[in-house]
Amino acid sequence: MEKFDVIVVGAGTAGCLAAKTVAEAGLKVCVIDRKGREEIGEKICGDALGEHHLKTVGLEKPQGGELEKRIEGVKVYSPDLETVFTIAYEDYVGYMLNRRLFGQWLLKKALDEGAILFDFTQCLEPITEKKFVTGVLAKNMKTGENIELKGKVVLDASGFTAVIRRKLPKEMGIESEVVNEDVEACYREIRQLKMETEKAEYCEIYLNQQVTPGGYTWIFTKGGAKVNVGLGVCMRGKFPNPRNQFYKYVLTKPLFEGSLLLKGGVWYDPTRRPLDNMVGDGVAILGDAACLANPIHGGGIGPSMLSGYLAGKTIVEALEKGDASKKSLWHYNRKYMEMYGAKQAGLDVFRMFLLESRDEDLNYGMKYKLLTEEDVLKAGLGKEFHLNVTETAKRVFRGLKRIRSLNKLRITVNLMREVKAHYGNYPETLENFEEWRMKRETLFREARSKLIE
Question: For strand 2-9 and strand 146-156, is the pairing parallel, antiparallel, or unpaired?
Answer without folding.
Answer: parallel
